[in-house]
């Protein structure tokens, strides 16, 4: 697809989306200062900059479908991040900021079509998103065709800043390899030379999440002794747990998502009495509610609102989020704020210029603040290098889920992922 994609083609694509029941939110709201994130257009500049052209940001995320909750968290964080970074003016370098939201519906073809619409019709200056790695992947070559910087958040698949990367791609979120490195760091820090088994669904998600932990364990002197891949719809985990118990690992690393989770059955088999420690990454609050049997578990976490230590941005986020939405920020909210921080920091460095080459030069190696601390874009692949947390799940009075309690911050450089970008 060439950059000369015509308006006619975009209209045809839009009609096709409508015909299949997918409704775009991109132009549903056209008034200035539109309400808090619900999709549509948000022209957020004040009255002091009418004479300057707005900076238009095209935002892609899942505002419906299986990842709607993730997308909405990220959207809220992004808009709050713009407010925080601009001191409420919603301007940078004297230019008002306009955000146009598009719902990818968690379908890659839709994500691609709406990215084209944002770039070819709305003429956005920067792209940001998406919740799904498949959605983000569908946009990579479009960003390169249109020579537009694309800030990925929170999609985590390694290949986005690896084999499929191009120079217009920057990722503020962590990738799967960083998660794996954090998990391996927690395990080996507790037991050098640990023997590890894994339990993950028999799906592309499961296998893609397991391989990085295997690599990181070997790198740190650990050993993989057993793997189990139950079907995604499994409800009886007994045979898988029995085989894991027979393998006698020091740790069982569990990767699972969905209502049919293995936590209860894992506790029934009392693996700890066999010297097997269960571990995983602490997920979003909704998923934590299913992990009550795992109170006392040691693991890692990307974010929980209680974890950042002495971070003014996180303190503001917690207070403002409670004020706006009557709830604490969740796992994907700070990522949206980090994406906004990276974009505003870059635009301040370029004095408001959105020229892609100028932005790329400003963003390579650039440090920016986030609710979890200082991050920076690695020059070689534009992957954000950032710290994560070692935690223990604890019961807290008045809270209806196990709370990840801070143990230590895992230094960013200790979990920096391999560089796999082409030509780098």
From TrEMBL:
Signal peptide extent: 1-19
UniProt xrefs under Pfam families: Peripla_BP_6 (PF13458)
SUPFAM superfamilies: Periplasmic binding protein-like I (SSF53822)
Keyword Endoplasmic reticulum: no
Disordered, as annotated region: 28-51
InterPro entries: BCAA_transport (IPR051010), Leu-bd (IPR028081), Peripla_BP_I (IPR028082)
Keyword Phosphoprotein on entry: no
Keywords: Signal
Amino acid composition bias (Polar residues), ranges on this chain: 28-49
Leucine-binding protein domain span: 54-389
Family designation: Belongs to the leucine-binding protein family.
Annotated protein name in UniProt: Substrate-binding domain-containing protein
Lineage: Bacteria, Bacillati, Bacillota, Tissierellia, Sedimentibacter
